[in-house]
Specification:
This protein has six helices and five strands; from the N terminus they run βαβααβαβαβα. It has 143 residues and is an alpha/beta fold. It folds into two domains: 104 residues, 3-Layer(aba) Sandwich (Rossmann fold); 29 residues, no CATH class. The chain is globular and about 50 Å long. The mean pLDDT is 88. InterPro entries: Crypto/Photolyase_N_sf, Rossmann-like_a/b/a_fold.
Length: 143
């Protein structure tokens, strides 16, 4: 029988790759993990420049870095740590939702909201990051 008092595991993913990640802040002493998603790396053909950027961000975080099938790697990491709880942050990704659904069948799963960078807008063009940033920059740096 597992010890129910074991600390949770923090899962850091690409939609909250920051030292201000709510899961890392809520559980600063918890073991944390990032998994390079082998399937997405192949499907999306992510550039080396972006991979290096993500890796440099990861070096600033207290995470163990793994690569492979996300569900399998997370399951293995949680079991290695002797935990039964996984904490992460929300994501709009259907792939994320599918992984969470499967994880919740094995573990207690807590998904924390990510505070918005800027207050909600009536309309915000998200087709390009630069359009979003033009609106955000005016609100973050008003002067």
């Amino acid at each position: 029988m597992r010890n129910l008092a074991t600390p949770p595991i923090v899962w850091v993913h690409g939609d909250s790759l920051s030292p201000m990640n709510p899961a890392l802040l809520a559980y600063p002493q918890a073991p944390a993990v990032w998994v390079w998603d082998e399937e997405l790396l192949t499907q999306w053909q992510i550039s080396r420049k972006r991979i290096v950027f993500i890796y440099e961000c990861l070096l600033e975080l207290p995470v163990e870095i793994r690569r492979g099938n996300v569900l399998q790697e997370l399951t293995q990491f949680v079991q290695e740590q002797g935990s039964n709880k996984l904490v992460t942050t929300q994501s709009p990704s259907p792939h994320f939702k599918q992984i969470c659904q499967e994880l919740s069948q094995q573990f207690t799963l807590e998904i924390l909201p990510i505070p918005p960078l800027i207050p909600p807008q009536k309309y915000l063009d998200l087709k390009r990051f630069s359009r979003y940033w033009q609106v955000a920059e005016r609100q973050i740096y008003p002067h």
